Amino acid sequence: MMLMTGAVITFLVGAVSAVPHAAIKRQVSQLRDHYDFVVAGGGTSGLTVADRLSEAFPDKTVLVVEYGDIEYAPGIFDPPLAVWGGVGASASYFIVQSLPLPDVKNKTAFVLAGKVVGGSSAINGMFFDRPSRHDLDAWASVASPQLDSSQNRWGWSGLYPFFKKSVTFTAPPAAVAQTYGYTWDTSVYSGSTPIYSSFPPFLWADHHLVRNAWADMDVPKLQECAGGNKAGLCWIPISQHPVTARRSHAGLGHYAAVNATRSNYDLIVKHQVTRVIYPNGSQSGPPMVELRSLANNQLFNITASAEVIISAGAFHTPTILQRSGIGRAALLSTAGISITVDLPGVGSNFQDHSGPGISWAYTKPGNFSPLPSSMSDPAFVADAVAGFGETPARGPYTLANSNSAIFVPLGNMSANSQTIISRIKGIVADGSAASYLPADYRDDATMVAGYNKQLAMIAKLLSDPRVPSMESTFATGTSVRAVHLHPLSRGTVRLNLTDTLQQPIVNYGTGSNPIDFDIYLAHLKYLRAMVNTTTLRKYGAVEVSPGNSTQTDAALLEYIKDQLVLSFMHPCCTAAMLPRQHGGVVGTDLKVHGAAGLRVVDMSVLPFLPSSHLSSVAYAVGEKAADLIIQDWS
After folding, report:
1. Quick check: 293 and 50 in contact, CB under 8 A?
2. Per residue in 211-269, pLDDT tens?
3. Which of 161, 249, 252, 287 could pair covalently with 122 via S-S, beta carbons 3.0-4.6 A apart?
4. In which band, very low, low, confident or very high, does the pLDDT at 153 lie, cut at 50, 70 and 90?
């Protein structure tokens, strides 16, 4: 597989000023009179699109507008951080906090979103898995039959080539693979893109304990989980360079690595896309793009002759659209915004992964070394820092958060699975599903129709023994979480009517559909069985939480509401790829319904959450979107 050039490795290590700054624009006066393509958002998907368009069309100009700046983006566990699992240095980010959530004791969720060139790929947990093929086929199904005639296929067969294209995977050295038992299948990777994934040359010494406990629970060990089949125990690569072990992100692979050779590719930082403007109506596109300088608040208009692509993410894409008059008419009227296109799906259908967890203690601990506690030894830390600076890098600083995970179907976890599935089908059949939607769109027939179709599809996925319902990851320690992969509850992202240029008002909606608690409960009960496996009993494992005194379903539900992680930082779905009559915002071509010359390319276009973290999905969607745009303009 291709390795990164020396110049880019230098940039990764810290010479941030060397490669990209010469081309960075900071003032509108530095820009051209007009551009062919304007991309709103220099994140994971947006930079992927800009890279591919500027490469495919050397005679067309591409502008990316980014709210943040270009920064060094440290990995999850980089020096000088001396506590694994702690909070170290990071590239810049937005902190988005939800309204209080009445169904989980008025707790508030918060999520981080990248505010930097590279977007959330520059700040995320670096876990680089792909969804199950059945998730992607389900995306295509919820768009049927209205979009069946489209040539733009979004099932597994339509997106898998772009997963392969989007990343360069490097297998570990044989000695490392043998030491840790890594397995993989190189046939599911074929990219030569400078976005890298690899396995670290180091794991904590207790890593195998939970993997063995999961094997005790008859979770099948899979050789590879990136090829579409994902129900089992997986080794997961991370988004890091295989030599330097530095974070690999879109700001490097889709900007710094290519910009020096692209005279047609401009990037302006520290500017906000406030809205798009259709002076002659929504069918007269492409629209103009209004920018605001963060330095002095001045507004400017940029002209695009071909297309405008909004890639600002699940929180900021809907707010750009809403400020542009594209969204729910009642909300826009309240904000005093003229209606361009009445699309109630904008900022609706919001989802994120969430879940409870368990913890235990060992009464007969093994003599495992090294463990994160070894970082209290100055000699160990000094060697770890030295190892991180070697070529190739070695030691604990090559780690991110985790490389092991299980993905388990609901039927494999709970004898109650068919009852849960029947409840989902029942609320669709009797029309009560709408009562669990946010109040401001439960009376909209298009939104209800889309929600019912999603629930019916999720019930079908939960019935399939090949489709994971829960994810749980592990790296070290005595706790694991149960991630609910296909939540039923829905939230909203709405303009802040006090100041529409500030962060939106987010309602997570967690637990608003009560069947989610049935699923949380099934997941939690399944994970509790770990403590009684042969592997963990050998070390005298004793459950700490929920604890032996928490046995009834009622008590466990209280525990779940108290301990639930409300966001695993995977926000999505607020400009969904669905038919307009089902509350959709974009079609399978990613064009905004009723708005000429305008596409959305980011995680807001997903109709519902997949069984994966979203980084690899964002790259693949960006690659496919670029392919669609190139076909249109070739």
Report:
1. no
2. 999 999 999 999 999 999 999 999 999 999 999 999 999 999 999 999 888 999 999 99
3. 249
4. confident
Annotation: binding site for FAD: 44-45, 116, 273
User: 285 is written with which tokens?
Assistant: 């596109």
Q: What are the tokens at 577?
A: 């790829």
Annotated binding-site residue numbers: 44-45, 116, 273
The alpha carbon torsion through 589, 594, 595, 601 (nearest 10 deg) reads: -30
Q: How is residue 83 written in tokens? A: 């506590």
Instruction: Read off the pLDDT of residues 409-453 as tens digits, 9 standing for 90 and up.
Output: 999 998 899 999 999 999 999 999 999 999 988 989 999 999 999
**pLDDT value, residue 140:** 87
- Are 246 and 240 within 8 A, CB to CB? yes
> Which tokens in the block code for residue 122?
């520059």
d(C-alpha 512, C-alpha 323), whole Å:
28
Other beta carbons within 10 angstroms of residue 2's beta carbon come to 11
Between helix 553-563 and helix 515-528 the angle, nearest 10°, is: 100
User: Alpha carbon of 305 to those of 317, 323, 381: distances in Å?
Assistant: 21, 22, 55
| Sign of the Cα pseudo-torsion (184, 186, 188, 190, in order) | positive
Residue 335 has pLDDT above 70, yes or no: yes
Q: What is the Cα–Cα distance from 616 to 120, expressed in whole angstroms?
A: 11
Mean pLDDT of the chain: 94
Residue 334 near residue 497 (C-beta atoms within 8 A): yes
pLDDT of residue 146: 59
Measured CA to CA, the distance from residue 601 to residue 625 in angstroms comes to 7
Contact 112, 125 (CB under 8 A): no
517 CB-near residues (< 8 Å, 6+ apart): 511, 557, 560
Q: At which residue do the structure tokens 């060697």 appear?
A: 383
What the block records as the tokens of 590 is 């990613």
- What the block records as the tokens of 43 is 């994140």
The model's pTM is: 0.95
Provide, rounded to the nearest whole percent, the portion of the chain with pLDDT above 70: 95
Active-site annotation, residues: 570, 613
What are the structure tokens assigned to 532, written together?
């009684």
Q: How far apart are alpha carbons 93 and 536 in whole angstroms?
A: 39
Whether omega for the bond prior to residue 546 falls within 30 degrees of 0, making it cis, is yes
Peptide bond into 220 cis (omega under 30): no
Task: Say if residues 536 and 208 touch (Cβ distance below 8 Å).
Answer: no
Q: Across residues 318-339, what is the average pLDDT?
A: 96
Distance between CA atoms of residues 473 and 470, nearest Å: 10
Sequence-ordered list of residues with C-beta below 8 angstroms from that of 401, at least 6 positions apart, any chain: 76, 125, 126, 127, 238, 473, 475
pLDDT in tens, 543-591: 999 998 888 999 999 999 999 999 999 999 999 999 999 999 999 999 9
Q: Are 235 and 199 in contact (CB under 8 A)?
A: yes
> What distance in Å separates the CA atoms of residue 348 and residue 231, rounded to the nearest whole number?
30
- The token pair that represents 597 in the structure block: 């010359």
Collapse the DSSP code of 225 into the 3-class scheme (helix H, G, I; strand E, B; otherwise coil) and give the result. coil
pLDDT of residue 259: 86
Q: Is 126 left (phi over 0), alpha (psi -120 to 50) or beta?
A: left
Structure tokens at 270: 């520290």
Asked if the model's pLDDT at residue 6 lies above 50, the reply is no
Nearest by Cα to 155 from 144, 145, 141, 167: 141
pLDDT at 482 over 90: yes
The pLDDT of residue 52 is above 70: yes
Token couple for 258: 């290519």
